[in-house]
Amino acid sequence: MNIELxxxxxxxxxxxxxxxxxxxVAGLQKQFGAWRRELLETRAERRRSPPDFLPExxxxxxxxxxxxxxxxxxxxxWVEITGPTDRKxxxxxxxxxxxxxxxxxxxxxAPTWRNMIEGHINLRDAIDGTIAYDSSDGRHYExxxxxxxxxxxxxxWHLPERHLVVxxxxxxxxxxxxxxxxxxxxxxxxxxxxxxxxxxxxxxSHREARLWNEVFCVAQDVLGLPRxxxxxxxxxxxxxxxxxxxEILFELREHSAGLNAGRWDYMFSAIKCFxxxxxxxxxxxxxxxxxxxxxxxxxxxxxxxxxxxxxHAMGGMAALIPSRRDEEANTRALDGVRADKQREAAxxxxxxxxxxxxxxxxxxxxxxxxxxxRPNQLSRLRDDVHVTxxxxxxxxxxxxxxxxxxxxxxxxxxxxxLSFWLAGRGAAAIDSLMEDAATAEISRSQIWQxxxxxxxxxxxxxxxxxxxxxxLDEETAAIRSAVGDEVWDRGRxxxxxxxxxxxxxSPELIEFLTLVAYDYLD
Length: 522
Fold this sequence. Notes:
This protein is 47% helix and 13% strand. By secondary structure, it is α/β, with parallel strands linked by helices. The protein is globular, with a radius of gyration of 22 Å. The protein starts with a strand and ends in a 5-residue tail after the last helix.
């Protein structure tokens, strides 16, 4: 097995990029790389027809099996905060008062080599209790007693890590992220009375869950850990996966920690699955709420499926950011988050996600009240839920219009987010919302869909490539004026525009903007 490390090695990097750790990751790639490639090819084949419940797995859906009970640390998950793995954010998230912190190597992270390796150093130090940070303004940050339970989200199966090459092929980003963390931290966590807990993104089928389960089994055997030590919550954030929730839980049943309603990527996946069907075109992003028919069907089915199998059902992200300067805007944001979390708790969810520490008390208060202090709602089976394939696919029933404001928002957010991403920031506050790769995907794929189908704005104008470029000129001029020339130039505007036009205006819909943008990173 030939292992080639092409990323820069700084003294601190050597602490995690040890020969044994690299050999562990390379071993996973050697064993599972071909299986991963085959599954990615299968995705494209399956997308040629609308998803449906699989007849060959009917028995799994109808039988009465259950997943293994959650470990103590995952019994109560009322509020989980998510964010990237830079040092200050890790400390603040663990100290936020949330039940869990999902340290994100995926959508909230720009996968620069430095970001990835420093993230692993930061998580190791957090587990050891030695993490600290001194900011330029003189403030000191360190871990408080009783921090949140740590969960880690590796990259999806589709993303590579080009800085580690095994037998001439870049390793899967998922195996790199999982492997380094498991090698250095799994035993540390077990000895601390916890465990290695993960979130698995972007799965499209139970076969992809089966691959993860095999990775877990091999990793536990090599590391000398009992089977079932690793636990994983799967994000149901693709339309195909919504038809295989039972099967995904079944494949991971000894390693399962439940399912999560990954709302933003789910919307993007719905657009992608029906990119060429004009009757499936969605209105402005802001109009596609969690209560529109196809989104409500998916969220109801997720709770019912999880609880029937004894698995936790986790709600979606509250992306609103509180304002500490504008009292009225802050009240609106908190009221919006409170209403969203009340809806989830009423549906039967066991917990939810937030993106900002100030939202933790709001979400916690809702779930504490709605659950009456109980750690979860697993006993609430939702036998009243009967969701059909037609309901899951009913994008056409989504009310709303396509407006100039919506188009401008998509252009502005898509451009700004890509600029932040190229600068190494995977989560960015834009217009009081925390934007990440998933929300940027919605923005650029909606633009593509509207142009592709010649959709008319509510004022009668047709959305064309020329109109998008005209609005892009106007929005970028406004951004430059607001930030100043120095900041504008640091944001790599030429590269940003080039990527934006590729992913929003290409003849065919590009599968992931991050696959295009990754080539522009160091």
